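Before going further, learn to read the protein records used in this course. Taken together, the tokens spell out the fold as the letters spell out the chain. A record is reproduced here so that you can trace the correspondence yourselves:

***
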Amino acid sequence: MDNYTIKLFSIVTVLFAFGTLLPRTAGAYQMNVVVGDGSSASCTESALDTAVASINAAAGGNLSFSCGSSMVTIPVTTTKVFEHDVTIDGGGRITLDGGGNTRVLFNDKRKTMTVRNLRIINGYAPDQGGAISNSWRGNLNVYNSIFENNVANGNGGHGGGAIFNHEATLIIADSEFTNNTSHSAGTADGGGGAVYGLLSNVIITNSRFVGNRATASAGGAFYSDGTLNQNGYIGLFNNQWIDNEGSREGGAVFTFLYPDRVGSYVEIRDNLFKDNVVLLAMNRNNSLFSGGGGLRHGNGPLILSNSAFINNMAYRQGGGIWIGENSAATLTNLTLSGNQANDPNEDNQGLGGGIMTGNGAVNISHTTIVNNYAGFMGGGMFGGGAGVQLRNSIVAKNTVGNPWDININCAETYTDGGSNIQDSQRKPHDTNDHDCTPHMIIADPLIMDLRSNDPLPNHPLQASSPALDGAYQCGASDDQIGTLRPQGGICDIGAIEMPVEPVPPRLYPLSGAVINASTYQGPNFQFSHVEGTEWYRVWVGKTDGTRYFDQAMYQWFNASVICSGGVCTIPNDLWLTNGNYAWWITRYSQADPNFGQKWHPSTLSVDFEPPAQTVTLTSPVAGVTLATAPNTISWARDTNVHWYRVWFGPADYSRGALFYQWVDATDSQYCNNTTCTIAVNAAQISDGEYHVYFQVWGPNGFYKWGGVNGGQPSVFTVGSG
């Protein structure tokens, strides 16, 4: 099965708070019983019956299997009833098969059953618990186990295709439930396609529920009807609920609390609800109803956080979530996308494509409700009125089917907690239309497409989204996928806090630097390497603060080529004229698809004095007569000049130029801080008069031959002349 990350702090807190949920240790049992002698043939139902009888006779024990290294299936034709505490460990190789006719395991009243590493398939019960039935006040602990194709027929009013828990405690961890079914046999309560908890404390962690069905009642995968006692608890952590089908209420999960269980509540964190559906079925008022495509909760406190509701469907209300009765609920860091409250067979049916709320106090913060649909009203939300507070949330891009095109995002005006965004404003002259709160930010939130490859799918924000750094006080310490808030100085609006991309620190020029003759270090820009980056893209150009122009560079560079020792050097020389510049860097790595979504700018200014229009020879000095030919020519350097173009040759031009090229004044091969020197071939210099001409270029000017030294050459003579 998939390996998910459990939020240990929440689970451990719950386990200790409800000590009755803690399983007994193996050492508490009196006997260790092994089924089989090491061969697969020895692992029969008869051998299993003998082991069960031994454990019951010994008032409890540990049951394991020695059936060889292959996978072994043991047919079960009679239910294995345990009258005392037991641990059953299948070792990851044993399947118990009920054959479609038999409930597989039964735990007696007030006993503790622990099931590990076991696969149970094709169990059948005429009433409840096709695979396991846990009796009144018992403890059932299920770890790393698989339940497939188990059925509860629902006679007696309850269900639980795989597990039924009767006024008891139940822990499920690291397990899979696939294609289990609960029928209702004419009653309205035989729900819980996979698991039914009747007045039970339940924790389910790190587990996966796929394709389970409650054919005529609520909770396609899980049905919880009240807690065991006061301060009771239903905790769902880090689970996936996919493609389950319920009837009437709760396509995947149905939870309900009772006021006499004072202090009880439901907590759901890090769960994915995807592609679940709740079908129409008769409710207690003998009318057809369908609510809560992913989750239906009612009648008590709910803490729902860091979860995603994707493409769920209800035929009437709450495509993603339906919160009923007077439930006080806190919803934080949720993404609801692609959910529908819609009857495909009947027009203008469907309220609250994303969320439907009742009359309780519901606080929604850092939640993204987008791309949902309601067949009639409230593509994003419906119900609750002023009892619902919306804060730091996005409600946008939702749609409705009503002919007036009103109440698109929200069908009521909710209490404004600050910093909420919707993309379309209510019709100003239609009193039946509503903004989500009185002070919504009306703007396109600029979200990206659904990032469905994340364990909890989400809509990241685009680089220019108004939701970035837009929240009024952080309503959560992290976001839906665990990114700490805030990443900048202020939290982002919505379920996702966009990470602040590591900015490659500028080494030269520093951000905001002014480059002039005293600060200039050369034409090759440098920045620090960000670990993991494979390519950098660099743009340099002028800016006036509102626009960018005169592009000087726009190029990809391979980090393995330009970076060494943590420093990256742009190999291309950047010769910039005076002005204000922006220097942008973005980065890319195959390992992280989010690289390159943001450009990181810095600014700099180039501010040189104009180059001097006089160039003074220092060796040989102009006007001098040399006895022998020189092998170098030197002149005084002007630090406002970056390039000198030098022509040197005989005064009569009879032999053309002996030296004619551009000289980089920033290259130590030619120039230091005070002097520039070029090498000439003395063997080519015969007696006579010689001329030296200069052109000069700097960031603040370019002077050609006629603009330097008044257009006159510097002259010296070799020999007698």
